UniProtKB/TrEMBL annotation:
SMART domains: Gal-bind_lectin, GLECT
Originating gene: Lgalsl
PANTHER family, per database record: GALECTIN (PTHR11346), GALECTIN-RELATED PROTEIN (PTHR11346:SF98)
One Pfam family linked to the record: Gal-bind_lectin
Organism taxonomic ancestry: Eukaryota, Metazoa, Chordata, Craniata, Vertebrata
Keywords attached to this entry: Lectin
PROSITE patterns in the cross-refs: GALECTIN
Name of this protein: Galectin
Listed GO MF terms: carbohydrate binding
Protein's job: Does not bind lactose, and may not bind carbohydrates.
Length: 169
């Protein structure tokens, strides 16, 4: 009578090992921060909310962009509340928005160009009542006044271009 109990024990062990093993396996398939990246902003934007983008600029970058959009739709294109585009050839960090298919006036004045090829960076987009406030590596670089009034509709972040993402928050 001892033998069947033993084999039952083995089956249970095997089952335990499998159940313990599966979360570990699950981590391997955890969504990586792959560029182009598209992610959901839970609950949308609101005053006081901050979006953090950390990454490393590619070795020979041309440009990269960070967009906050109202949904993920490509056709018709979702409204873009703010697009930040770092253009290395011109050393510009331009921003714009697109409402109902119409791009607004591009803004490009910056005190300095903060991005360096092959170097890490930290971009923070702070949402305030009248504007987005943009910080790079802890320094406030510029403000961008809202062109989309319904902040909670801004629920998607899209990132593309010549960079690796290391952290989003």
């Amino acid at each position: 009578a001892a033998a069947p109990a033993l084999s039952l024990q083995k089956i249970e062990d095997g089952h335990l090992n499998n159940s313990l093993g599966s979360p570990v396996q699950g981590d391997v398939y955890f969504p990586r921060l792959i560029v182009p990246f598209c992610g959901h902003i839970k609950g949308g934007m609101r005053p006081g909310k901050k979006i953090l983008v950390m990454g490393i600029v590619d070795l020979n970058p041309e440009s990269f962009g960070i967009r906050l959009t109202c949904g993920e739709s490509e056709d018709p294109p979702a409204d873009v509340a703010i697009e930040l585009k770092a253009v290395f050839t011109e050393r510009q960090f331009v921003r714009n928005s697109c409402v109902a298919g119409e791009w607004g006036e591009e803004q490009s004045s910056i005190p300095y160009f903060p991005f360096i090829p092959d170097q890490p960076f930290r971009v923070e987009i702070l949402c305030e009542h009248p504007r987005f406030r943009i910080f790079v590596d802890g320094h406030q670089l510029f403000d961008f006044y809202h062109r989309i009034e319904t902040l909670s509709a801004i629920d998607t972040i899209k990132i593309n271009g010549d960079l690796q993402l290391t952290k989003l928050g």
